[in-house]
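Researcher: Checking consistency across runs. Here is Uma2 family endonuclease again:
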Amino acid sequence: MSAAREYGLDEQYEWARPPQGGWTADDLDRLPNLPPHTELIDGSLVLVSPQTAFHMRALRLFEHALLDQVPDTLDVMREMTVKLDDKNRPEPDVLVLRAGADAGPLDTWYRPEDVVLAIEVVSADSKERDRKVKPPKYAGAGISHFWRVEEDGGLPVVYVYELDPAVKAYLPTGIYHSKLTLSVPFPIEIDLTSINRRP
């Protein structure tokens, strides 16, 4: 049996057809020829469009700023999936997670209980997912902090949310335009106007 047939791919087009009930989180590691940064949302594969310069600069800004400020008990990763459950394995743009969450160098995902902060940088094709679909899923999985980053005139605007554990929902705690200053999940200060500077 060919790999295409084994994984439900049409051999002529080599395109994935979902199995009955949809894909599972573990299928992301087994399906051949998936494009980079493919996510699983509600059992469906989500393919990511090419990213803008703003998106890539925002990822760089937050990754480097957080790495410079994160305590030794935490670590920062970008573009790694989080296995929320069997049908959901989204890929936040930047993650802050507990140090030691890696099970090994070949890991492809993290557990939600190891994630302290998930950051999504909104793109044209991800607005609905980043604003309405992913936040309730992250909150339901118990991820304590969530930031949504939007572009405004070439600069990032950061919408900050904190989990209310009693109802497993995010509450907004602030909107930041030029400077992000927070005390949780650890002391953070980021000059958002420096997005175009090289580290």
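Researcher: Does this match what you'd expect to see?
Model: One thing to look at in this run: The domain at 53-194 is CATH 3.90.1570.10 (tt1808, chain A).
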